[in-house]
Amino acid sequence: MADKITHLDGLRGIAAVNVMIMHFFIVLTPAMIYGNQTPSHLGNLELIFSSTPLGLIGAGNFSVCIFFVLSGYVLTQNFFKTGNKNLIISGALRRYIRLLIPVCAAVMFSLLLSSAGLFYYYSETVTITANNNPGNYWLNYWTFTPGIVDAVKQAAWESFFVGGSIDYNPVLWTMKVEFFGSMLVFAMALLLRPLRYRWTIYLAASMVLINYYYLAFIIGMALADLFANKTRAFKTSNKLVLSTLLFVGLFIGSYPVGTLTNDSLYSFLNSDLFFRPFIGYHILGAGLIMYVLLNSMWLQKVFSSAVSVFLGKISYSLYLIHFLVICSFTCKLFLVLYPILPYGTALLVSMIISSALIFPLSYLFYRYIDTLGVNVSKIFYNRLFSPLLSYCEGHLKQQHILRSVYALYTRVLK
Q1: Best CA proximity match to 22, nearest among 137, 109, 111
Q2: Nearest Cα to Cα of residue 322 among 172, 125, 116, 152
Q3: If you average pLDDT over residues 386-406, what whole number do you get?
Q4: Which of 5, 235, 329, 341 is positioned for an S-S bond with 345, CB 3.0–4.6 A?
Q5: DSSP 8-state secondary structure symbol assigned to residue 370
Q6: CB atoms within 10 A of CB 281
Q7: Rounded mean pLDDT of 100-129?
Q8: What's the CA gap between 254 and 53, in Å, rounded?
């Protein structure tokens, strides 16, 4: 099983690094992401990045959509292969605990940094970089006062059930989508797998959710269903077809999050199909990339490299803590380098040195926090829910036997 999913871990790892790069850009050179919405510090380079496929370097929202498609696929693939309902039940009951423990640790880390005043460097840096929060990124940072009670509330409740801007770590906006998206595909897979017309329901659900990130989970689940099926429908090894789909997926995945001009490469994609086109196109692009990866042995080998797999292993940890390091250590480093080096050099050196800190921290977080979340969720399920479910299942079987005996007894009397 591990051999079959290493390429998925590799894709997840590369996507996590891409999110980190995006946040470096948002804080230190926001025009790289938002184009002419913010002042330029590197001449035309930022505008080129923000309005061409070069923007794939730092296409964080596209990478988040890849996360969601991967979740829809990975959470349901074994169930579609085996039909074992316990896989769905176990996954659903463990999901919150598995996600919660690393989130709580990341929020406590943020509380520590904030209480120490280290996010002050973030406020100083964005004054220089002229990041006017065109995407409302960490807008509440300027007004919230850190406190342990509020931190626990945001980690355990607001991150998963309220959503929106999370004061202690803005990347946690994805946790609500991840949690409810997971529950959505668990429920749909469990209920629809026996139905022949489930693909019609998949399509209908996709149309309803076409303007929401939850569409990515349905695409991932549908791919899991498709590739668990022994038929070769919609599967291909044709290199021309896969290359074309890969190109299309990357192109629409690079659709800018900033404003577009009429002469932009992407202007022909503007339509009334999506409320926010960049979300819709990023989800579709992520789905195409996933489809190509599942069909392409060559691409699977690329994403199964040792580096990619290692990044996939630490991807959740990297996602949770990188922005906190950027807004403290990286910003402080940039403030030191900015007066003495050219802007581009200060940016590059800050990113490289910070990455050398973020990756080891992410590994430590994975080793001691993320694995703890996985293990505790298993213990939680095995000691609490598994015996309860076994008892209920045994009780139902007993009731069924009693009803059968009673039915036989009444027939004998008749």
Answers
A1: 137
A2: 172
A3: 53
A4: 341
A5: I
A6: 24
A7: 93
A8: 5
Residues near 69 by beta carbon (within 8 Å), at least 6 away in sequence: 216, 217, 219, 220, 223, 283, 286, 287, 290
DSSP code per residue over 269-317: G--SS-SSHHHHHHHHHHHHHHHHHHH-HHHHHHHTSHHHHHHHHTHHH
**Mean pLDDT lowest for which of 158-167, 228-237, 359-368?**
228-237
The residue segments making up the domain with residue 81 are 2-413
Mean pLDDT of the chain: 88
- Domain count of the fold of the chain: 1
Tens of pLDDT, residue by residue over 123-141, are 889 888 876 654 455 656 6
DSSP string for residues in 45-83: HHHHHHHSGGGGTT-HHHHHHHHHHHHHHHHHHHHHHH-
Give pLDDT, residue 405. 45
Q: Taking phi first (over 0 means left), then psi (-120 to 50 degrees means alpha), and beta for anything else, what does residue 391 get?
A: alpha
Higher pLDDT, 277 or 20: 20
Angstrom distance (rounded) from CA 120 to CA 168: 14
- Cα 304 to its chain centre, rounded Å, is 19
Q: What is the DSSP letter of 103?
A: H
Query: Does the pLDDT of residue 3 top 50, yes or no?
Result: no
**How far is residue 52's CA from residue 258's CA, in Å, rounded to a whole number?**
12
- The CA–CA distances, whole Å, from 46 to 38, 40, 398 equal 10, 7, 69
What is the residue type of 46? Answer: E
